[in-house]
């Protein structure tokens, strides 16, 4: 038919449209005056470089030579990370995906078991394109499918042997949820009784301390190995670390090289990580406390607006991040947020995704330094302006 696009043309057009939408969103978020938190990908290259140079000078001697294959500033970061977590050593990785694949592979070799017990909502199962099975040759089993961490009873009653128990703290896709400290200890003990080792996916471990009421070394000390991220919560450019015993770390270094992670220079990522550890890590308890204030204000505002169904999950956040669910499509919710940023200079919500039954969408809310300036009244005012940009509230049930 004349004038009809081919499949390749339609795909190219869709790709171009997606790029334009992303550029518009970033422009709106970058120029907004008020936001609850800063996204790590926002800003300009020039601005990010200037900020890194200014903040980096306060945490590292910038007259030193750049790193080469993991020495210098990268080695300094590894030592700092091990000290903070109370482990014998730590090794820097360019990505958390690589760090965890290496950790689980090392433990499979050491335990003689290729079976890893983990949650089906955990990062290796949801966001790594099945690298656990495709690259590492490991076999996952699930102690539970409930949207929470597995209990000690579920670990103990898993009907087949496993060599490693992996726990994601917090479990992001379930709503950044955590168990209680006693529950976590009992679950770890159950794995030990099953003669398994324990690995923590601690991409966001930094902000778990307030919920548990324990120090980072106490939390990390429960596990045989811990992975932490430098850009989640800390605002670094990229990078991660695997922490544990000196022997495990040395083995992980060898596998990092085999996996292609022996990068020539990584000083920008390492420097930004040191800045995050110095500036953001001490403030995370404030963010966690204020996330509870923001979540409560959103709940009260949605009730007052007459939204017939919504959910703040967890109702009292366990960390400085939580989910908001609303009965609208993700496109119209995302568009309402972009328009609010463009017209009011306020960012309350960012990208929404379809999840659960049809007609529902979910977004993640992160409360960081900018959000500390928001009072409950500010949150409810911004929420009212956001809802006013939707096509109309569904009728009350």
Automatic annotation (TrEMBL):
Chain intervals with Basic and acidic residues compositional bias: 12-21
Domain Aromatic amino acid beta-eliminating lyase/threonine aldolase: start-end pairs: 68-299
Cofactor annotation: pyridoxal 5'-phosphate
Signal peptide (from-to): none
Keyword presence, Lyase: yes
Keywords: Lyase, Pyridoxal phosphate
UniProt region (Disordered), positions on chain: 1-22
An annotated Gene Ontology molecular function: lyase activity
InterPro entries registered for this protein in UniProt: ArAA_b-elim_lyase/Thr_aldolase, PyrdxlP-dep_Trfase, PyrdxlP-dep_Trfase_major, PyrdxlP-dep_Trfase_small
Keyword Transit peptide assigned: no
Family that this chain belongs to: Belongs to the threonine aldolase family.
Full protein name: Beta-eliminating lyase-related protein
């Amino acid at each position: 038919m004349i004038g009809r696009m081919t499949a390749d043309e339609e795909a190219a057009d869709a790709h171009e449209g997606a790029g334009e939408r992303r550029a518009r969103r970033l422009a709106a978020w970058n120029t907004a005056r008020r936001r609850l938190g800063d996204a790590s990908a926002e800003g300009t290259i020039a601005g990010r470089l200037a900020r890194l140079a200014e903040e980096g000078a306060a945490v590292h001697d910038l007259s030193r030579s750049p790193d080469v294959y993991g020495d210098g500033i990268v080695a300094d970061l590894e030592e700092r990370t091990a000290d903070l977590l109370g482990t014998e050593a730590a090794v820097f990785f360019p990505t958390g995906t690589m760090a965890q694949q290496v950790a689980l592979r090392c433990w499979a070799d050491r335990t003689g078991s290729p079976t890893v017990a983990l949650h089906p909502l955990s990062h290796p199962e949801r966001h790594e394109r099945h690298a656990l099975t495709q690259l590492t040759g490991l076999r996952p089993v699930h102690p539970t499918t409930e949207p929470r961490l597995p209990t000690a009873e579920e670990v103990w009653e898993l009907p087949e042997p496993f060599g490693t128990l992996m726990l994601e703290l917090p479990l992001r896709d379930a709503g950044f949820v955590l168990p209680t400290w006693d529950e976590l200890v009992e679950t770890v003990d159950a794995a030990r009784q099953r003669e398994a080792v324990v690995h923590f996916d601690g991409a966001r471990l930094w902000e778990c301390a307030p919920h548990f009421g324990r120090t980072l070394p106490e939390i990390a000390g429960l596990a045989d190995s811990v992975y932490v991220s430098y850009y989640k919560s800390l605002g670094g450019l990229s990078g991660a670390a695997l922490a544990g015993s000196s022997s495990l770390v040395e083995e992980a270094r060898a596998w990092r090289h085999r996996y292609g992670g022996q990068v020539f220079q990584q000083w920008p990522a390492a420097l930004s990580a040191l800045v995050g550890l110095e500036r953001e890590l001490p403030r995370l308890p404030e963010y966690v406390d204020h996330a509870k204030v923001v979540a409560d204000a959103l709940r009260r505002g949605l009730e007052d607006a007459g939204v017939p169904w919504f959910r703040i999950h967890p109702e009292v956040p366990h960390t400085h991040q939580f989910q908001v669910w609303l009965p609208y499509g993700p496109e119209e919710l995302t568009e309402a947020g972009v328009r609010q940023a463009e017209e009011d200079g306020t960012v309350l919500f960012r990208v929404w995704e379809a999840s659960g039954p049809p007609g529902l969408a979910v977004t993640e809310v992160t409360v960081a330094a900018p959000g500390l300036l928001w009072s409950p009244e500010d949150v409810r005012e911004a929420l009212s302006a956001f809802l006013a940009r939707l096509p109309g509230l569904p009728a009350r049930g």
